[in-house]
Amino acid sequence: MEKSDIGLVGLAVMGANLALNIESKGFAISVYNRNTDVVKQFVEGVAAGKRVRGATSLEELVSQLASPRKIIILIRAGNPVDEIIGQLIPLLSPGDIIIDGGNTHFPDTVRRTAFVESHGLLYVGTGVSGGEEGALKGPSMMPGGSKAAWEHVKPIFQGISAKAPSDGIPCCDWVGPDGAGHFVKMVHNGIEYGDMQLICEAYHLMRDGLGMTAPEMSEVFAEWNKGELDSYLIQITRDILAFSDNGEAVVDKILDTAGQKGTGKWTAVTALDEGIPLTLIAEGVFARCLSAAKAERVNASKILSGPSGVKLDKATLIPAIRDALYASKLVSYAQGFALMRAASETNGWNLNYGSIAMMWRGGCIMRSAFLNDIKAAFDKKGDLANLLLDGHFKNAVDKAQAGWRLTCKSAIEAGIPAPAITAALSYYDGYRTEKLPANLLQAQRDYFGAHTYERIDAPAGKFFHTNWTGEGGAVTSRTYNA
Protein backbone atom coordinates (compact mmCIF):
# COMPACT_ATOMS: atom_id res chain seq x y z
CA MET A 1 0.00 0.00 0.00
CA GLU A 2 1.19 3.52 -0.82
CA LYS A 3 2.83 5.30 2.08
CA SER A 4 1.51 8.73 3.01
CA ASP A 5 3.76 11.76 2.61
CA ILE A 6 2.76 13.21 5.98
CA GLY A 7 0.58 12.51 9.00
CA LEU A 8 -1.65 14.82 11.02
CA VAL A 9 -2.91 14.57 14.59
CA GLY A 10 -6.01 16.62 15.44
CA LEU A 11 -9.08 17.00 13.24
CA ALA A 12 -10.69 20.13 14.64
CA VAL A 13 -11.42 22.92 12.14
CA MET A 14 -7.78 23.92 11.54
CA GLY A 15 -6.52 20.34 11.31
CA ALA A 16 -9.29 19.16 9.01
CA ASN A 17 -8.87 22.12 6.65
CA LEU A 18 -5.08 21.83 6.59
CA ALA A 19 -5.39 18.11 5.78
CA LEU A 20 -7.65 18.90 2.82
CA ASN A 21 -5.22 21.61 1.69
CA ILE A 22 -2.27 19.20 1.84
CA GLU A 23 -4.13 16.56 -0.16
CA SER A 24 -5.26 19.10 -2.76
CA LYS A 25 -1.63 19.98 -3.48
CA GLY A 26 -0.78 16.41 -4.47
CA PHE A 27 0.39 14.92 -1.17
CA ALA A 28 -1.01 11.77 0.42
CA ILE A 29 -1.91 12.25 4.07
CA SER A 30 -2.87 10.07 7.02
CA VAL A 31 -4.95 11.53 9.84
CA TYR A 32 -5.62 10.64 13.46
CA ASN A 33 -7.85 12.08 16.16
CA ARG A 34 -8.25 10.94 19.75
CA ASN A 35 -11.96 10.50 19.04
CA THR A 36 -11.78 7.94 16.24
CA ASP A 37 -15.41 8.60 15.26
CA VAL A 38 -14.17 12.01 14.05
CA VAL A 39 -11.60 10.26 11.86
CA LYS A 40 -14.25 8.01 10.32
CA GLN A 41 -16.59 10.93 9.64
CA PHE A 42 -13.80 12.95 8.04
CA VAL A 43 -12.45 10.17 5.82
CA GLU A 44 -15.91 9.06 4.70
CA GLY A 45 -17.25 12.61 4.46
CA VAL A 46 -15.43 15.65 3.02
CA ALA A 47 -12.27 13.59 2.37
CA ALA A 48 -14.02 10.74 0.58
CA GLY A 49 -12.29 9.76 -2.68
CA LYS A 50 -9.16 11.71 -1.78
CA ARG A 51 -5.67 10.52 -0.88
CA VAL A 52 -6.54 10.69 2.81
CA ARG A 53 -6.28 7.68 5.09
CA GLY A 54 -7.57 7.44 8.62
CA ALA A 55 -5.79 5.86 11.55
CA THR A 56 -7.38 4.57 14.74
CA SER A 57 -4.16 4.83 16.79
CA LEU A 58 -0.83 6.64 16.74
CA GLU A 59 0.84 3.29 16.00
CA GLU A 60 -1.28 2.87 12.89
CA LEU A 61 -0.65 6.47 11.86
CA VAL A 62 3.13 6.01 12.10
CA SER A 63 2.99 2.73 10.14
CA GLN A 64 1.29 4.48 7.23
CA LEU A 65 4.01 7.11 6.71
CA ALA A 66 6.96 7.20 4.32
CA SER A 67 10.42 7.72 5.82
CA PRO A 68 11.48 10.12 7.20
CA ARG A 69 8.09 10.23 8.88
CA LYS A 70 6.58 13.68 9.21
CA ILE A 71 3.72 14.27 11.64
CA ILE A 72 1.91 17.57 12.22
CA ILE A 73 0.26 18.09 15.61
CA LEU A 74 -2.70 20.50 15.50
CA ILE A 75 -4.28 20.30 18.93
CA ARG A 76 -4.81 22.64 21.89
CA ALA A 77 -1.49 24.20 22.98
CA GLY A 78 0.07 23.25 26.31
CA ASN A 79 0.23 19.90 28.06
CA PRO A 80 -1.72 18.00 25.35
CA VAL A 81 1.14 18.68 22.91
CA ASP A 82 3.70 17.31 25.39
CA GLU A 83 1.54 14.23 25.90
CA ILE A 84 1.34 13.49 22.16
CA ILE A 85 5.09 14.06 21.75
CA GLY A 86 5.73 11.62 24.58
CA GLN A 87 3.52 9.01 22.93
CA LEU A 88 5.09 9.49 19.48
CA ILE A 89 8.78 9.34 20.42
CA PRO A 90 8.88 5.57 21.12
CA LEU A 91 7.15 4.90 17.80
CA LEU A 92 9.53 6.90 15.61
CA SER A 93 13.01 6.34 14.18
CA PRO A 94 16.07 8.64 14.07
CA GLY A 95 15.53 11.46 11.59
CA ASP A 96 11.73 11.39 11.80
CA ILE A 97 10.06 14.78 12.24
CA ILE A 98 7.47 16.00 14.73
CA ILE A 99 5.77 19.28 13.77
CA ASP A 100 3.73 21.51 16.09
CA GLY A 101 1.43 23.74 14.04
CA GLY A 102 -0.54 25.14 16.97
CA ASN A 103 -0.50 28.51 18.70
CA THR A 104 2.33 27.54 21.03
CA HIS A 105 4.26 29.92 23.28
CA PHE A 106 7.79 30.02 21.88
CA PRO A 107 9.62 29.02 25.14
CA ASP A 108 7.74 25.71 24.98
CA THR A 109 9.03 25.19 21.45
CA VAL A 110 12.60 25.94 22.58
CA ARG A 111 12.22 23.28 25.29
CA ARG A 112 10.55 20.72 23.04
CA THR A 113 13.11 21.10 20.25
CA ALA A 114 15.92 20.21 22.66
CA PHE A 115 13.90 17.32 24.13
CA VAL A 116 12.94 15.78 20.78
CA GLU A 117 16.44 16.19 19.35
CA SER A 118 17.86 14.42 22.43
CA HIS A 119 15.96 11.34 21.21
CA GLY A 120 17.52 11.51 17.74
CA LEU A 121 14.43 13.03 16.14
CA LEU A 122 13.81 16.40 14.48
CA TYR A 123 11.32 19.02 15.64
CA VAL A 124 9.57 21.89 13.88
CA GLY A 125 7.45 24.55 15.56
CA THR A 126 5.58 26.47 12.89
CA GLY A 127 3.26 29.42 13.16
CA VAL A 128 0.20 29.01 10.94
CA SER A 129 -1.79 32.17 10.26
CA GLY A 130 -4.97 32.72 8.33
CA GLY A 131 -7.63 30.96 10.35
CA GLU A 132 -9.75 28.15 8.95
CA GLU A 133 -9.95 29.76 5.50
CA GLY A 134 -6.17 30.10 5.36
CA ALA A 135 -5.69 26.51 6.50
CA LEU A 136 -7.88 25.32 3.63
CA LYS A 137 -6.82 27.68 0.85
CA GLY A 138 -3.28 28.65 1.85
CA PRO A 139 -1.96 30.04 5.13
CA SER A 140 1.12 32.03 5.98
CA MET A 141 3.57 29.63 7.64
CA MET A 142 6.53 30.50 9.85
CA PRO A 143 8.57 27.34 10.60
CA GLY A 144 11.52 27.05 12.95
CA GLY A 145 13.28 24.34 14.93
CA SER A 146 15.65 21.61 13.72
CA LYS A 147 17.19 22.99 10.52
CA ALA A 148 17.80 19.49 9.14
CA ALA A 149 14.02 19.04 8.93
CA TRP A 150 13.52 21.92 6.51
CA GLU A 151 14.54 20.10 3.33
CA HIS A 152 11.98 17.39 4.08
CA VAL A 153 9.02 19.63 4.97
CA LYS A 154 9.80 22.50 2.59
CA PRO A 155 8.02 21.05 -0.50
CA ILE A 156 4.85 20.44 1.51
CA PHE A 157 4.91 23.68 3.49
CA GLN A 158 5.62 25.90 0.49
CA GLY A 159 3.19 23.88 -1.62
CA ILE A 160 0.25 24.46 0.74
CA SER A 161 1.07 28.00 1.85
CA ALA A 162 -0.45 31.14 0.37
CA LYS A 163 1.29 32.75 -2.59
CA ALA A 164 1.94 36.49 -2.61
CA PRO A 165 -0.40 38.15 -5.13
CA SER A 166 2.32 40.34 -6.65
CA ASP A 167 4.89 37.67 -7.52
CA GLY A 168 3.56 34.23 -6.51
CA ILE A 169 6.31 33.63 -3.95
CA PRO A 170 5.20 31.19 -1.20
CA CYS A 171 4.37 32.90 2.10
CA CYS A 172 6.58 30.44 3.95
CA ASP A 173 10.31 30.21 4.56
CA TRP A 174 12.62 28.90 7.25
CA VAL A 175 12.71 31.35 10.17
CA GLY A 176 15.43 30.02 12.47
CA PRO A 177 16.36 27.60 15.29
CA ASP A 178 14.19 26.17 18.08
CA GLY A 179 11.40 28.64 18.99
CA ALA A 180 12.04 31.23 16.26
CA GLY A 181 9.04 30.26 14.14
CA HIS A 182 6.54 30.40 16.97
CA PHE A 183 8.14 33.61 18.23
CA VAL A 184 7.61 35.34 14.88
CA LYS A 185 4.00 34.09 14.82
CA MET A 186 3.54 35.54 18.32
CA VAL A 187 4.82 38.94 17.19
CA HIS A 188 2.63 38.70 14.10
CA ASN A 189 -0.37 38.26 16.40
CA GLY A 190 0.80 41.13 18.62
CA ILE A 191 0.96 43.49 15.65
CA GLU A 192 -2.47 42.18 14.67
CA TYR A 193 -3.80 43.19 18.11
CA GLY A 194 -2.41 46.69 17.54
CA ASP A 195 -3.80 46.97 14.02
CA MET A 196 -7.27 45.88 15.08
CA GLN A 197 -7.31 48.36 17.97
CA LEU A 198 -6.21 51.20 15.68
CA ILE A 199 -9.04 50.45 13.28
CA CYS A 200 -11.51 50.28 16.15
CA GLU A 201 -10.37 53.71 17.37
CA ALA A 202 -10.83 55.17 13.89
CA TYR A 203 -14.32 53.64 13.84
CA HIS A 204 -15.06 55.03 17.33
CA LEU A 205 -14.03 58.54 16.31
CA MET A 206 -16.21 58.44 13.21
CA ARG A 207 -19.15 56.85 15.03
CA ASP A 208 -19.24 58.93 18.19
CA GLY A 209 -17.22 62.00 17.21
CA LEU A 210 -18.70 62.55 13.76
CA GLY A 211 -22.04 60.76 14.20
CA MET A 212 -21.54 58.59 11.12
CA THR A 213 -23.65 55.50 10.37
CA ALA A 214 -22.15 52.07 9.71
CA PRO A 215 -22.88 52.25 5.94
CA GLU A 216 -21.24 55.70 5.76
CA MET A 217 -18.15 54.38 7.54
CA SER A 218 -18.09 51.35 5.23
CA GLU A 219 -17.73 53.71 2.28
CA VAL A 220 -14.80 55.45 4.00
CA PHE A 221 -13.00 52.17 4.67
CA ALA A 222 -13.68 51.08 1.09
CA GLU A 223 -11.93 54.22 -0.15
CA TRP A 224 -9.02 53.76 2.27
CA ASN A 225 -8.55 50.19 1.06
CA LYS A 226 -7.66 51.50 -2.41
CA GLY A 227 -4.48 53.23 -1.21
CA GLU A 228 -1.63 52.79 1.24
CA LEU A 229 -3.96 51.28 3.86
CA ASP A 230 -4.91 48.42 1.53
CA SER A 231 -5.03 45.37 3.80
CA TYR A 232 -7.12 42.41 4.83
CA LEU A 233 -8.25 44.06 8.09
CA ILE A 234 -9.36 47.27 6.35
CA GLN A 235 -11.16 45.15 3.74
CA ILE A 236 -13.11 43.08 6.27
CA THR A 237 -13.92 46.22 8.28
CA ARG A 238 -15.50 47.66 5.13
CA ASP A 239 -17.55 44.49 4.71
CA ILE A 240 -18.56 44.25 8.39
CA LEU A 241 -19.84 47.84 8.45
CA ALA A 242 -21.87 47.23 5.29
CA PHE A 243 -23.51 44.06 6.62
CA SER A 244 -27.12 44.47 7.70
CA ASP A 245 -29.95 42.32 9.01
CA ASN A 246 -33.49 43.54 8.38
CA GLY A 247 -32.09 46.94 7.47
CA GLU A 248 -30.02 47.29 10.64
CA ALA A 249 -26.22 47.16 10.84
CA VAL A 250 -25.20 43.93 12.57
CA VAL A 251 -22.12 45.60 14.07
CA ASP A 252 -24.39 47.90 16.07
CA LYS A 253 -26.00 44.87 17.74
CA ILE A 254 -22.73 43.28 18.93
CA LEU A 255 -21.79 43.57 22.62
CA ASP A 256 -18.67 45.71 23.11
CA THR A 257 -16.58 43.19 25.08
CA ALA A 258 -13.57 41.63 23.35
CA GLY A 259 -11.82 38.35 24.04
CA GLN A 260 -8.25 37.21 23.48
CA LYS A 261 -6.28 33.96 23.23
CA GLY A 262 -3.12 35.22 24.91
CA THR A 263 -0.67 35.82 22.07
CA GLY A 264 -0.96 39.61 22.39
CA LYS A 265 -0.24 39.34 26.11
CA TRP A 266 2.74 37.06 25.41
CA THR A 267 4.10 39.67 22.98
CA ALA A 268 3.77 42.48 25.53
CA VAL A 269 5.35 40.42 28.34
CA THR A 270 8.23 39.39 26.07
CA ALA A 271 8.76 43.06 25.19
CA LEU A 272 9.07 43.86 28.90
CA ASP A 273 11.58 41.03 29.29
CA GLU A 274 13.60 42.38 26.37
CA GLY A 275 13.27 46.04 27.44
CA ILE A 276 11.56 47.04 24.18
CA PRO A 277 8.83 49.76 24.36
CA LEU A 278 5.99 47.90 22.68
CA THR A 279 3.53 50.58 23.76
CA LEU A 280 0.98 50.42 20.96
CA ILE A 281 0.57 46.64 21.04
CA ALA A 282 0.34 46.68 24.84
CA GLU A 283 -2.45 49.25 24.58
CA GLY A 284 -4.24 46.93 22.17
CA VAL A 285 -4.14 44.20 24.82
CA PHE A 286 -5.20 46.53 27.62
CA ALA A 287 -8.07 47.92 25.52
CA ARG A 288 -9.51 44.41 25.32
CA CYS A 289 -9.12 44.04 29.09
CA LEU A 290 -10.97 47.34 29.62
CA SER A 291 -13.72 46.29 27.22
CA ALA A 292 -14.27 43.17 29.32
CA ALA A 293 -15.16 45.34 32.35
CA LYS A 294 -18.56 46.08 30.78
CA ALA A 295 -20.60 46.26 33.99
CA GLU A 296 -18.08 48.61 35.61
CA ARG A 297 -18.04 50.86 32.54
CA VAL A 298 -21.84 51.05 32.43
CA ASN A 299 -21.88 52.11 36.07
CA ALA A 300 -18.99 54.57 35.60
CA SER A 301 -20.76 56.17 32.62
CA LYS A 302 -23.49 57.29 34.99
CA ILE A 303 -21.04 58.80 37.48
CA LEU A 304 -17.99 60.14 35.64
CA SER A 305 -18.22 63.11 33.30
CA GLY A 306 -16.30 64.23 30.25
CA PRO A 307 -16.44 67.03 27.67
CA SER A 308 -19.68 67.78 25.89
CA GLY A 309 -20.77 69.91 22.98
CA VAL A 310 -17.49 69.45 21.07
CA LYS A 311 -18.02 69.90 17.33
CA LEU A 312 -15.73 67.94 15.01
CA ASP A 313 -15.54 68.72 11.31
CA LYS A 314 -16.11 65.66 9.13
CA ALA A 315 -14.41 67.05 6.02
CA THR A 316 -11.24 67.79 7.97
CA LEU A 317 -11.18 64.88 10.39
CA ILE A 318 -11.81 61.90 8.09
CA PRO A 319 -8.58 62.39 6.09
CA ALA A 320 -6.79 63.17 9.37
CA ILE A 321 -7.97 59.87 10.86
CA ARG A 322 -6.75 58.10 7.75
CA ASP A 323 -3.29 59.66 8.21
CA ALA A 324 -3.31 58.81 11.92
CA LEU A 325 -4.25 55.23 11.17
CA TYR A 326 -1.46 54.85 8.61
CA ALA A 327 1.25 56.49 10.73
CA SER A 328 0.22 54.52 13.82
CA LYS A 329 0.23 51.30 11.80
CA LEU A 330 3.83 52.04 10.82
CA VAL A 331 4.70 52.46 14.50
CA SER A 332 3.04 49.13 15.29
CA TYR A 333 5.26 47.36 12.76
CA ALA A 334 8.32 49.34 13.87
CA GLN A 335 7.80 48.22 17.45
CA GLY A 336 7.15 44.62 16.41
CA PHE A 337 10.30 44.40 14.29
CA ALA A 338 12.32 46.07 17.07
CA LEU A 339 11.17 43.30 19.41
CA MET A 340 12.14 40.64 16.87
CA ARG A 341 15.57 42.21 16.53
CA ALA A 342 16.13 42.20 20.30
CA ALA A 343 14.93 38.63 20.73
CA SER A 344 17.02 37.49 17.77
CA GLU A 345 20.13 38.83 19.49
CA THR A 346 19.12 37.34 22.84
CA ASN A 347 18.47 33.88 21.41
CA GLY A 348 21.02 33.82 18.57
CA TRP A 349 18.34 33.28 15.93
CA ASN A 350 19.78 35.54 13.19
CA LEU A 351 16.30 36.41 11.90
CA ASN A 352 15.85 37.67 8.34
CA TYR A 353 13.40 40.55 8.72
CA GLY A 354 12.83 41.11 5.02
CA SER A 355 11.98 37.44 4.60
CA ILE A 356 9.56 37.63 7.52
CA ALA A 357 7.75 40.56 5.88
CA MET A 358 7.47 38.50 2.69
CA MET A 359 5.86 35.62 4.62
CA TRP A 360 3.08 37.94 5.79
CA ARG A 361 2.05 39.16 2.31
CA GLY A 362 -0.60 36.49 1.76
CA GLY A 363 -2.77 34.05 3.65
CA CYS A 364 -2.49 35.71 7.05
CA ILE A 365 -4.58 38.28 8.92
CA MET A 366 -1.68 40.75 8.69
CA ARG A 367 -1.44 40.85 4.91
CA SER A 368 -1.20 44.44 3.67
CA ALA A 369 0.20 46.48 0.83
CA PHE A 370 3.19 48.02 2.60
CA LEU A 371 4.86 44.72 3.56
CA ASN A 372 6.73 45.06 0.26
CA ASP A 373 8.01 48.41 1.52
CA ILE A 374 9.22 46.76 4.74
CA LYS A 375 11.06 44.15 2.69
CA ALA A 376 12.65 46.93 0.62
CA ALA A 377 13.73 48.76 3.80
CA PHE A 378 15.59 45.72 5.13
CA ASP A 379 17.04 44.99 1.68
CA LYS A 380 18.60 48.46 1.74
CA LYS A 381 19.87 48.13 5.33
CA GLY A 382 19.80 44.70 6.91
CA ASP A 383 20.74 46.03 10.35
CA LEU A 384 18.11 48.81 10.30
CA ALA A 385 17.51 49.70 13.96
CA ASN A 386 13.96 50.92 13.48
CA LEU A 387 11.62 51.03 10.48
CA LEU A 388 10.88 54.70 11.18
CA LEU A 389 14.49 55.51 10.18
CA ASP A 390 14.02 54.15 6.67
CA GLY A 391 13.68 56.97 4.13
CA HIS A 392 10.39 55.73 2.69
CA PHE A 393 8.71 55.43 6.08
CA LYS A 394 10.23 58.67 7.38
CA ASN A 395 8.67 60.52 4.45
CA ALA A 396 5.35 58.73 4.98
CA VAL A 397 5.23 59.81 8.63
CA ASP A 398 6.24 63.37 7.73
CA LYS A 399 3.33 63.50 5.30
CA ALA A 400 0.84 62.03 7.79
CA GLN A 401 2.04 63.83 10.91
CA ALA A 402 -0.29 66.84 10.84
CA GLY A 403 -3.38 64.66 10.47
CA TRP A 404 -2.05 62.26 13.12
CA ARG A 405 -1.71 65.09 15.65
CA LEU A 406 -5.10 66.55 14.75
CA THR A 407 -6.71 63.16 15.30
CA CYS A 408 -5.15 62.78 18.75
CA LYS A 409 -6.14 66.34 19.67
CA SER A 410 -9.71 65.83 18.45
CA ALA A 411 -10.09 62.55 20.35
CA ILE A 412 -8.85 64.12 23.59
CA GLU A 413 -11.04 67.21 23.20
CA ALA A 414 -14.11 65.07 22.50
CA GLY A 415 -13.36 62.62 25.31
CA ILE A 416 -13.19 59.65 22.94
CA PRO A 417 -10.53 57.12 24.00
CA ALA A 418 -7.79 56.51 21.43
CA PRO A 419 -5.14 54.72 23.49
CA ALA A 420 -3.31 53.05 20.61
CA ILE A 421 -3.22 56.05 18.26
CA THR A 422 -2.02 58.38 21.04
CA ALA A 423 0.47 55.81 22.34
CA ALA A 424 1.88 55.52 18.82
CA LEU A 425 2.35 59.29 18.60
CA SER A 426 3.95 59.43 22.07
CA TYR A 427 6.35 56.66 21.06
CA TYR A 428 7.23 58.54 17.87
CA ASP A 429 7.83 61.77 19.78
CA GLY A 430 9.84 59.95 22.43
CA TYR A 431 11.95 58.11 19.86
CA ARG A 432 12.84 61.33 18.04
CA THR A 433 13.69 63.21 21.30
CA GLU A 434 17.41 63.60 21.94
CA LYS A 435 17.06 64.31 25.66
CA LEU A 436 14.24 62.69 27.63
CA PRO A 437 13.44 63.52 31.30
CA ALA A 438 14.92 60.25 32.56
CA ASN A 439 17.76 62.27 34.13
CA LEU A 440 15.26 63.46 36.75
CA LEU A 441 13.97 59.93 37.15
CA GLN A 442 17.51 58.70 37.83
CA ALA A 443 17.95 61.45 40.42
CA GLN A 444 14.72 60.37 42.11
CA ARG A 445 15.86 56.75 42.19
CA ASP A 446 19.21 57.75 43.63
CA TYR A 447 17.52 59.99 46.23
CA PHE A 448 15.20 57.36 47.68
CA GLY A 449 17.15 54.20 46.92
CA ALA A 450 20.80 55.10 46.28
CA HIS A 451 20.48 53.46 42.86
CA THR A 452 23.28 55.68 41.37
CA TYR A 453 23.39 57.43 38.01
CA GLU A 454 25.74 58.20 35.14
CA ARG A 455 26.80 61.75 34.25
CA ILE A 456 27.05 63.44 30.86
CA ASP A 457 30.47 64.83 31.81
CA ALA A 458 31.98 61.45 32.77
CA PRO A 459 32.83 58.27 30.85
CA ALA A 460 29.96 55.87 30.12
CA GLY A 461 29.72 53.11 32.68
CA LYS A 462 30.98 55.20 35.59
CA PHE A 463 28.30 55.54 38.26
CA PHE A 464 27.78 58.25 40.87
CA HIS A 465 25.76 58.66 44.04
CA THR A 466 24.75 61.91 45.71
CA ASN A 467 24.00 62.31 49.40
CA TRP A 468 20.89 64.38 48.63
CA THR A 469 19.74 64.98 52.22
CA GLY A 470 23.12 65.23 53.93
CA GLU A 471 22.07 62.34 56.13
CA GLY A 472 22.69 59.44 53.77
CA GLY A 473 25.81 57.36 53.52
CA ALA A 474 28.08 56.19 50.74
CA VAL A 475 26.47 52.74 50.38
CA THR A 476 24.67 52.33 47.04
CA SER A 477 22.14 49.88 45.69
CA ARG A 478 22.93 47.45 42.94
CA THR A 479 22.79 49.04 39.48
CA TYR A 480 20.85 47.38 36.69
CA ASN A 481 19.28 48.29 33.39
CA ALA A 482 15.58 47.95 32.58
What would you note in describing this structure?
The chain is of the alpha/beta class and 482 residues long. It has helices at 13-24, 36-44, 58-63, 79-88, 106-117, 131-137, 150-160, 180-209, 214-224, 232-242, 263-274, 279-292, 294-301, 314-347, 353-359, 371-380, 391-414, 419-431, 438-449, and strands at residues 6-9, 29-32, 52-55, 70-73, 97-100, 122-129, 140-145, 176-177, 244-245, 248-249. It is 52% helix and 8% strand. It has an eight-stranded mixed beta sheet with strand order 3-2-1-4-5-6-7-8, with helices on both faces. The longest helix is centred in the C-terminal third of the chain and has 34 residues, at 314-347.
Pick out its properties.
single chain; 482 residues; alpha/beta; two-stranded antiparallel ribbon; 19 helices; 8% strand
CA distance, first residue to last residue? 60 Å
Rounded to an integer in angstroms, the radius of gyration calculated over CA atoms is 25 Å
Structural class determined from secondary elements? alpha/beta
Strand order of the largest sheet: 3-2-1-4-5-6-7-8
Uncertain runs are none
Topology, element by element:
Blueprint: E1 6-9, H1 13-24, E2 29-32, H2 36-44, E3 52-55, H3 58-63, E4 70-73, H4 79-88, E5 97-100, H5 106-117, E6 122-129, H6 131-137, E7 140-145, H7 150-160, E8 176-177, H8 180-209, H9 214-224, H10 232-242, E9 244-245, E10 248-249, H11 263-274, H12 279-292, H13 294-301, H14 314-347, H15 353-359, H16 371-380, H17 391-414, H18 419-431, H19 438-449
Parallel strand pairs: 1-2, 1-4, 2-3, 4-5, 5-6, 7-8
Antiparallel strand pairs: 6-7, 9-10
Helix pairs in contact: 1-6, 5-8, 8-11, 8-12, 8-14, 9-10, 11-12, 12-18, 14-17, 14-18, 15-16
